[in-house]
Amino acid sequence: MSGPPPSVARAEEDADIVAQSLEQPELFALLYDRHAPDIHRYVARRLGASAADDITADTFLVAFRIRSRYDRTRANARPWLYGIAGNLVGKQRRAEVRALRALARTGHDPLAGSGGEFWLEDTDRRIAAQGPLAGALAGLSAPDRHVLLLVAWAELTYQEVAEALDIPVGTVRSRLNRARRKVRTALGADPAFMTDVAEVA
Q1: Is residue 31 part of a domain?
Q2: Which of 7, 32, 110, 182 is surrounded by the fewest CB atoms within 10 Å?
Q3: In a domain, 6, yes or no
Q4: Each residue of 19-57: b (16+ CB within 10 Å) or e?
């Protein structure tokens, strides 16, 4: 029966997998198995399931190609992978903003049913709130929106976002504070939106 050596299969740190994959490329599949579902979910929320399939595949293809440059002092490859995915999402930012503006204008989520729903609970209040929140997100600059969604949807820590985007933690904090302030200002103090704001702001 083929497969990675037991010592590799049990490796807890992503850095070990990346390092060992330089000699045994097939081991990189362990990293894919560990992180691809989360990357796919995150991209699907932003761009829809169809785009998420392609971007997830491309994320790991890029990661495989540049794995020799991976900083092995970082045990967890999750921020690195989100950074790659984020660069690829950035190339689709016009499509993302178009979808957000369409949702803000019509109240209809163009990603609904494709695995890219912005919110999970299907209640009248939440449906009514989607448009204004989508409009607020569309109004953010791409860097601010990216930081906000990495924290809110990918659940990365400030340090992980800094690693993902290769920026200082202080920049993460300032972008996040600015994004939250703009979203809250755009939505006002309407209690109907407060749960939705909490998810991203």
Answers
A1: yes
A2: 7
A3: no
A4: bbbeeeeebbebbbeebbebbbbbbbbbbbbebbeebbe
Could you give the CA distance from residue 194 to residue 201 in angstroms, rounded to a whole number? 9
**How far is 19 from 200, CA to CA, in rounded Å?**
35
Tell if the pTM clears 0.85, that is, is over it.
Answer: no
Is 8 part of any domain? no
Residue with tokens 């976002």: 161
Within-domain flag for 37: yes
> Are 192 and 179 in contact, with CB atoms under 8 Å apart?
no
Instruction: Indicate if the alpha-carbon torsion angle 122, 128, 133, 134 is positive or negative.
Output: positive
pLDDT tens per residue, the chain (201 residues)? 445 444 444 446 999 999 999 999 999 999 999 999 999 999 988 888 888 999 999 999 999 999 999 999 999 999 999 999 999 998 887 777 777 777 777 665 544 544 444 433 343 344 444 667 888 888 899 899 999 999 998 999 999 999 999 999 999 999 999 999 998 888 875 544 444 444 555
Domain count, the chain: 1
Range of the domain at 83: 13-200
Instruction: Centre a 10 Å sphere on the Cβ of residue 179 and count the other Cβ atoms it contains.
Output: 26
Angle of CA points 1, 15, 24, to nearest 5°:
35
Tokens of residue 79, six digits: 């921020």
